[in-house]
Amino acid sequence: MRILVLGMGNPILTDDAVGVRLAADFKAVFGAWRGLEIVEECAVGGLELIEVFRGCQRAIVFDSLETRDGRPGAWHQFTAAALRQTAHLGSIHDANFATALKLGRRLGLPLPADDDIHIFAVEIADNRTFGESMTPALERAYPRLRTAIFTKIRALPPVRRAAPAGQPVYWSVASSNLNPHPPWLS
Predict the structure, then answer these.
(1) What is the pLDDT of residues 107-143, one digit of tens each?
(2) Helix (H, G, I), strand (E, B) or coil at 37
(3) Which residues face 159 on adjacent strands?
(4) Contact assessment for residue 120 and residue 152, using Cβ atoms and an 8 Å cutoff
(5) What does pTM read for this prediction?
(6) 141, burial (CB in 10 Å: exposed 0-12, middle 13-18, buried 19+)
(7) Farthest CA pair distance, the chain
(8) In this predicted model, what pLDDT tens digit does every residue of 45-95 receive, in sequence order?
């Protein structure tokens, strides 16, 4: 079993660093154990994401989002299933997120199901200015949004996987607090 936690963004583009910071804090709060892979800083997209997701059963993605009426620090949770109809999560030179996953599955690659890719996107004010600090509005909202997102992650349904004897085994972040090293990860 491989659980992937991915911090998307650039740590020197002000608010774009929020995904990277959430991934680093996730590691500090939840620790690390065999089977959990935390990539604190990921700046790839499109087809390159296939290789990043390859072989994991669940992915938790932290990223930034800038919408027309968004308030810095507001956050959204959705799964990859919600991205199927999205035309804007990519560029004209590469495949978007949903298309990359679809291609990887058609090639027979072991990728998590859309419902097991959980995306937490944080509204930002500025991702175009170079700087190692987030904007004051996002910095003020960060402790509250981090707590809320981590609480939501603890409540995610467990990942189902087949055990060697054919019995299902379940894992969730909530249960990991009781036993930080689940037996099947050892």
Answers:
(1) 999 999 999 999 999 999 999 999 999 999 999 999 9
(2) strand
(3) 171
(4) yes
(5) 0.82
(6) buried
(7) 54
(8) 888 888 999 999 999 999 999 888 999 999 999 998 887 655 444 555 567
Per-domain residue ranges of the chain? 3-185
Q: Amino acid identity, residue 117?
A: I
Can you tell me which residue has the tokens 């004209």? 92
Whether the predicted pLDDT of 182 surpasses 50: no
> In angstroms, rounded to a whole number, what is the distance separating the alpha carbons of residues 95 and 117?
18
Fold of 3-185: Rossmann fold (3.40.50)
- 23, pLDDT greater than 60: yes
Q: Sheet with 36-42: list strands edge to edge.
A: 36-42, 3-8, 58-65, 117-123, 75-79
List helix spans (H) across the chain.
Answer: 18-30, 48-53, 97-106, 136-154, 173-178
**CB-CB contact of 167 with 135 (8 Å):** no
As a whole number of angstroms, the distance between CA 65 and CA 124 comes to: 6
Q: Give the position of tokens 């608010």.
A: 15
Which strand (E) or helix (H) includes residue 8?
A: strand 3-8
Give the position of tokens 């930080």: 180
